[in-house]
């Protein structure tokens, strides 16, 4: 039994909760410490992360202190996912996992973050800036929807067979080794922010109609017990600390 | 001798040039194909990358097609840097390399990119949005400057000794295994955009005075032959195609 990892997080920020999902998936013990925004960009927290942001982890089992959620997730699977339950160690799959993780880190998180900023927090209303980032968020839906055509998960399930049962043809997956990975799981917590980004306009996105593959994939992810648990905790933490 | 990798790039976009630096460092043969912005978000290019962006690589030696510059860089070092000349395979160093690569991908590239957008391309002048991203760029300088205190490179050189020579004390590095890695090299091509972001205000940044560790580190990087070569090619390509 490993000693609990310390996860520095925040009640509402999506990136620490993203790490929490991975810790839950891997059943790695951890404790969460919430840091107030006002305390992030100064000592003592800045000594843990010169970028003054969460998440940061401290792992007493290896002595490592690490920040950047993408790097933390890679560390966790390389250290604790020894049977590769939520990643791939085979090639080319492991490089595709890295590709989607980097897209989440550079293409989803920052744009969703700017969309939140100009929708909710900027000092003045700037409709053209807000529109820019709302459009970027929709583009992320488009990219994921396109990549998921005929697939359950972003990486791994490219082999499928047609099963015929009682005369009904059904698409099924031939490869037992198909499963969701950190490539999929890393998108969840920013996706939870969509109603906060679009507010009253959320319904008009018509996600199920316009991005059906994305919508179904997101639903599959939300049904996982680790994701359900963290989504609930995030909602509760936001109500108390948010 | 491996067959040349195809690198899909763009004359002015920093991310493909970032990959080119790594290919040069590793002496991996490659050919560059420039894609016009107008052709990125539609077939046939969109079939290579559903995100409709460069860089993308096609490696005939492994059959892989890969996008996201961070993932491409990880692929290149894992496939072609078998003696770890610009990365680490030891722990914890390899996780710190990943941390800084993710910071570059999520914390430098996107913010520098937004700073360029609101300084140069947005449909209307929005001073408060421009200021937001100029401040973010300066914050990246601050974070790097802080992290580089007493260090040559972002990862690896934490052991140093004081040498005394003719009564002069000098800080020197005790570990032969200290070298620049993809953690450092990945920042270069966005840093080259700083004058484009700040225009006439670039001088008032006073980089050497305000961020001396960052400034010296950037200078060390710019002296590497691979970086020199690509910086020159980038300038020439921008003059012809930009």
TrEMBL record, chains A, B:
PROSITE patterns for this protein: GST_CTER, GST_NTER
Gene3D superfamilies attached to this UniProt entry: 1.20.1050.10, Glutaredoxin
Boundaries of every GST C-terminal domain copy: 90-240
InterPro entries with a match to the protein in the record: Glutathione-S-Trfase_C-like, Glutathione-S-Trfase_C_sf, Glutathione_S-Trfase, Glutathione_S-Trfase_N, Thioredoxin-like_sf
SUPFAM superfamilies (alphabetical): GST C-terminal domain-like (SSF47616), Thioredoxin-like (SSF52833)
GST N-terminal domain mapped to chain residues: 3-84
Record flagged with keyword NADP: no
Signal peptide: none
Source species, domain of life: Eukaryota
A molecular-function term among this protein's GO annotations: transferase activity
Keywords attached to this entry: Transferase
Family: Belongs to the GST superfamily.
The protein, known as: Glutathione S-transferase-like protein
Organism: Lachnellula subtilissima
Lineage of producing organism: Eukaryota, Fungi, Dikarya, Ascomycota, Pezizomycotina
Gene field: OpS6_0
């Amino acid at each position: 039994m490993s000693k609990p990892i310390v996860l520095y997080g925040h009640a509402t920020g999506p990136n620490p909760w993203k790490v929490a999902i991975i810790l839950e998936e891997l059943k790695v013990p951890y404790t969460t410490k919430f840091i107030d925004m006002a305390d992030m960009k100064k000592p003592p927290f800045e000594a843990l992360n010169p970028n003054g942001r969460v998440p940061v982890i401290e792992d007493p089992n290896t002595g490592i202190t690490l920040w950047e959620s993408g790097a933390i997730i890679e560390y966790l699977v390389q250290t604790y996912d020894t049977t590769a339950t939520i990643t791939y160690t085979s090639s080319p799959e492991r490089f595709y996992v890295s590709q989607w993780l980097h897209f989440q880190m550079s293409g989803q998180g920052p744009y969703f973050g700017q969309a939140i900023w100009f929708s909710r927090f900027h000092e003045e209303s700037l409709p053209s800036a807000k529109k820019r980032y709302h459009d970027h968020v929709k583009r992320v839906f488009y990219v994921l929807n396109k990549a998921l055509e005929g697939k359950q998960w972003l990486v791994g399930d490219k082999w499928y067979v047609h099963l015929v049962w009682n005369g009904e043809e059904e698409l099924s997956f031939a490869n037992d080794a198909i499963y969701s990975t950190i490539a999929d799981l890393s998108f969840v917590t920013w996706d939870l922010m969509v109603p906060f980004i679009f507010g009253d306009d959320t319904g008009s996105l018509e996600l199920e109609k316009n991005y059906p593959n994305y919508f179904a994939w997101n639903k599959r992810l939300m049904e996982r017990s680790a994701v359900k648990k963290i989504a609930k905790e995030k909602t509760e933490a936001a109500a108390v600390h948010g």
